[in-house]
Protein: Histidine kinase
Organism: Aeromicrobium flavum
Amino acid sequence: MDALERNRWENVVDAAVAVTSDLDLDSLLTRIVHQARDLTGARYAALGVLGRDSDDELVEFLTEGVHAGMAASIGTLPRGRGVLGVVLRDGRPLRLDDVGSHPDSVGFPPHHPPMGAFLGVPVRVNGVVFGDLYLTEKPGGFSEDDERIVAGLAAVAGTAIRNARLFDELASTRAELARMAVLEDRNRIARDLHDLVIGRLFAVGLSVDRISRHVDEPWAGRAAQAVDDVDRAIADLRGAIFALGSDATTDGPRLVRLLKATAAPLGFAPNIEVDGDLGLLGIGLRSDVHAVMNEALANVVRHARATRVDVCLRVGPDEVVATVTDDGVGIGDRGPASGLANLAERARREGGSFTIEPGPGGVGTRLVWSVPLDQDLPAEPHP
């Protein structure tokens, strides 16, 4: 091995060592493209990277020898068609004296520099092709030695790309495990609140309710108010439980289950409909929606003496609307229950509205709570 050959392979070794350094992937690949062009004497060099979920389309393209003005005039970068596609598809090196003479050549776009001699090598590790490294325009064409050197650099590039993707997958897995651990902890707290605290409050409410039946005014009225306060505390706790276990992928079914638990004293099942993606709502707004629907339903249980209740939640692109309709005695002259003031406050805080009106045909009551969605906030991703 002469001095020139030894120097070329030393550069390949340097590139391999760089894979273990702190260089980011783009910097390392740029360095490899530069070395390939420098070591072969080619005028142009490029490295294309396939997408994670694609085996035939390049999503990233690094060039050497093409200045910014030329790249801008060419426009859209190659996507892995023509001769580049042959290298990607066959998974083996390709040397040509004239790239335009190959039967798969699709020519060049306007303003593209002329290219004759061509050397393309797949960027591959363990049989998996990650892209291709290719060079063009070398006086006298490319040799077998050029091919071996570029194949070594392509192997280094493949290792770097694979390692970077494995690292991203590992980071995603760790993040998902951390998210699951947090959710499990929240669910444990939620179970404790539901099984211990709500159960005890419910028992207290029943005891006070029994006492209220055997005492005179004003104590009977105060006892009844205390029962209402306990009911609202239970509703608030259920809202906290809902927020603790909040997950955009499961909140719809969980909301239905919790509302059915609140409606149990009715003696019949309400009609509950949830329409739309709760992932469009932040955790805080999802908690508000649960608290509003739960309080409205609890108010029906306490005061309406209804035989039918319809509960509907609709999440649209611009707003979320919660509606509770019953066929009970209606509001009449007594005015809304004090517990409903909290619903109006929640709507006002979010820039929304809250209305109480007679139900269909003037029978019962219809509560409508609506809040606009902030279009500047991204929807919560589903795992």
